[in-house]
Every structure is written in C-alpha cells, then in structure tokens.
Amino acid sequence: xxxxxxxxxxxxxxxxxxxxxxxxxxxxxxxxxxxxxxxxxxxxxxxxxxxxxxxxxxxxxxxxxxxxxxxxxxxxxxxxxxxxxxxxxxxxxxxxxxxxxxxxxxxxxxxxxxxxxxxxxxxxxxxxxxxxxxxxxxxxxxxxxxxxxxxxxxxxxxxxxxxxxxxxxxxxxxxxxxxxxxxxxxxxxxxxxxxxxxxxxxxxxxxxxxxxxxxxxxxxxxxxxxxxxxxxxxxxxxxxxxxxxxxxxxxxxxxxxxxxxxxxxxxxxxxxxxxxxxxxxxxxxxxxxxxxxxxxxxxxxxxxxxxxxxxxxxxxxxxxxxxxxxxxxxxxxxxxxxxxxxxxxxxxxxxxxxxxxxxxxxxxxxxxxxxxxxxxxxxxxxxxxxxxxxxxxxxxxxxxxxxxxxxxxxxxxxxxxxxxxxxxxxxxxxxxxxxxxxxxxxxxxxxxxxxxxxxxxxxxxxxxxxxxxxxxxxxxxxxxxxxxxxxxxxxxxxxxxxxxxxxxxxxxxxxxxxxxxxxxxxxxxxxxxxxxxxxxxxxxxxxxxxxxxxx
Length: 551
Fold this sequence. Notes:
Blueprint: H1 11-57, H2 73-84, E1 173-175, H3 180-186, E2 190-192, H4 207-218, H5 224-232, H6 240-265, E3 270-281, E4 292-301, E5 309-314, H7 320-325, E6 335-338, H8 346-349, E7 357-360, H9 363-372, H10 378-398, H11 403-428, H12 441-451, H13 453-457, H14 470-475, H15 477-486, E8 488-489, H16 492-510, H17 515-525, H18 539-548
Parallel strand pairs: 3-6, 3-8, 6-7
Antiparallel strand pairs: 1-2, 3-4, 4-5
C-alpha cells in the first residue's frame, strides 16, 4: 500500500495487463486486416457488377471525359503537341515558297448536308403520270380546254419483293433421219445436249437460291426457321432441315476454294487471329439443361499482299486449333502473329508449330483493362488511358505514310512514349512503393500490361504491323451478331460448314464484293472449273476480272 492509501498493482497483475494489451492490439490488427480484405472484396465485386451491367445495358464505346485529362498537365501538353504537329514526308524535296501576295484563300469547308440523297441513275424507273380529271380541264373563264405548259417531277423509292422462279432445263436430242439403213440395223444415232454441272447434283435449288440462303443466314443473320416462313409467303414449302443440308453441300462444293484461301493466308508475313465461343448441341448432353457445350470459331486474317479472311471451327478452345492451322507457317521467313494473351499461342511462339513466329500483342486489350478499372481508381485509369491515347495519336499520323516511313515515325515518337509509360506503370505498383494493390482491378491491369510489355512494343519494329488486333475482332462481329439469332450450331459438322461459308462472306466484305452475285456465279461455275485455275474464283480476283471486262 502506498502512502496515499491506494493499493499498488502487483507484478502478476502488471504482467496480466501487459498480456491483455498485446492481445487487444493483435485483435485490433486482425480486425483492421479483415476490414481491408472485406473492402477489397467489395470493391472487386462492385467492379464486376458494374462491368456486367455495362455489357448488358451500357454503351460499348470506351470513351473517357476529355476534361479529366486536365488533371495531368504534362500529358495534356503532349496531347496538344501530338494533335498540332504533323509529320513531314520523309526524303521529300521542299516545295517552293509562295509569295504572300499570291496566296489563294482557302474556301471554308461547308457542313455536310442533311437533305435527301440523289437516287442511283441505274435503277429501273417507272413513270406514273398524274393528269387532271376531264371535268377540270376546261378554263373556268372562257370554257376552252387548257393546254399542258409544263410538269413537276418528284421521285420516290419503291420496292418489289423478291420472287421465286422455276428454271426448266430442256436438253434437246438429235438424230440423223437420213441414215435409214443404219437406223434399221442398229437404231438411230441419238445425241443429247449436255446440262451444266450443278453444285448439288439432282438438287432442287439452283445457284441463285443457294446464294440467297447463304447470304441470308451468314451475312444477314436470319435463322433457317425464319427463311422457312419467308419462303412460305411465296407459297413454297421448303423445310429448314432441307436448307441445312443445302448449306452443308454448298460448303463441300466450295471446300477446294476454301483450302486455297487458307494456303494464301499462310503465305502472309503478318496474320491477325482471334476466337469467339459458340454453343453446340451435343446428344450426349441431351438430358442436361440446355444440352449444349462450347465450341470455338477462329479467324485468321492475311496481310495486304494475301488479302483473305478465313474462319475455322474447333470443338473446344484447346491449343490444337491454332497449332494445327498454323503448322509450318514461318519456315522460310520471320513472321508475326498478332493475337490476345491466350496461352494456347505460346507453343507457336516457341516454335513448336515448326516456324519462326514472333508474338505481337494488342494495345486495345491492355487499354480495355485500364478502362474497365476506372470505377475503382479513376485518377490512375485516366492517366493510363492518356498515355495510350498518345500512342494512338502517333498511329493517326503513321497510317498516311509508307511502311518504312511508318516504322521510322514509330521509332522516333512512339518508342520514347512507351518507355515513359512503362516507368510510370512500374511506379504505380505497390511492390515498388506505389499506391496500387496487386489484386485490385487497376493492379491487375498494370500487371497484364507489364507481363505483355515486350509483345506490346513489337509493332514499333516493323511498319507492316498494327498497334492492336481490332481487325480480327471486327471480323468476328458477324459471328457474334449471328449467334444472337440462330443461337447455336447443330453439331460439329454444322460448325465446320458455318466456318467455310462465313469465310466467303468475310472475304467479300473485305473486298467490297456483292456476296450474293459472287456466290451465285461461283456456285454456277465451280463444279466445271479447272482446278489449275481455281484462284480465278477468289473474291478479290473475281472482282478484278469482272471490272476488267469491256462494257
């Protein structure tokens, strides 16, 4: 007991209080850690929820508010310089100076009109003359008939529904009536005219109807059950199963030309590729909900010297699909494969497919991850998108240049910006003292970009390369649009059929060829066309031959 009458704690009591204090501190630290973990989990779930809602109901455009760029003075200054400075043509002689007195004023650009466009002059025209009734032709003043002194003309665009027709093939037979003795002994010598070969032998559908069904399903995305009802309006009953068989037979007839397109794509120096899922009916899963499994459509785009678009189908997303398609590609030269970060391509880059293939990553994929993470860290996201925008500003200038000039411009402008962007990304990582946690959406975006960094910078080393893989993603949009209508493939064979026919639709769109005219003509000719001249039927060469014909 102390002098003031209070009881002093014993040593045991002090030790117990110290232990309690340590326990409470540990519990506090544990609760704070749990709270931080819960906050990160909630932040991740909110991020996923916002992405799902945006994909379902929001806009697909990945634009950001330009006012947010004002937060970053240095980047804003670089953006302004990139927009005002245009590259001078390399190795170009300077133009002679024009005296100020001789300067010709540039006419102010007129805004695009919003009025009605002129109708094509080559459309068939039908004149409908509107006359006054007979009782209104006399003049009300003198009673004499009035004379026509002019006319007012206006135009409307009409529509005549498509019509079906029956093509009746008549094969004339010939015999010699003068050879009576020969006819009496062995019968008359009769010869019958040959009928042109058909893509579907003894089939009901002519090439025009086959082309119509192909374009309707694989370009206009009409399921066969809708086409069945459309044909019923013309009093023609054709079952969807019959049209499905037609599509398989057309794909088989076009298979040699499809394989030629593949061989031409594999001669490219640069190939863009991507894949998209598709539901496939499976009889073994008939008892389960839905009864479908997931197959894959792959697209392979040739370069400008081999301009063919080819789609392929595989029952799964295993690496065997691209490995088999690209087997042997790049044996004679160094080639580039531009794709996403799918691990199935890693074996191709290691040379397991038998070629010297260099990986080229997609800047649009990296940008999308930063854009998706803007809800969790708006400031870092906006700055990352600003760096990427600077790179695309260089591409806006580079696309007007030749291949060597494009490479030189990228080395001069894009490469320093990439190095600056990388240093900034590394400074944001928590492992280097930055504010971004590795498991956060922004941390995952930064990790993705840094893991793909070497492949993201490859495009600066060759003017033939693109900064992103948007071309192949755009080529797969027709599959995504069709999938919302016909929903699934009936089997793996149906997937292969769709891949062949999608390829011709995609190639026609690339070369701005009327797909119906092309398919109708090719299906008419391909059965009898010489195999050594099969390249004449490729969409680009077919179009060139057609435009070169004298009128």
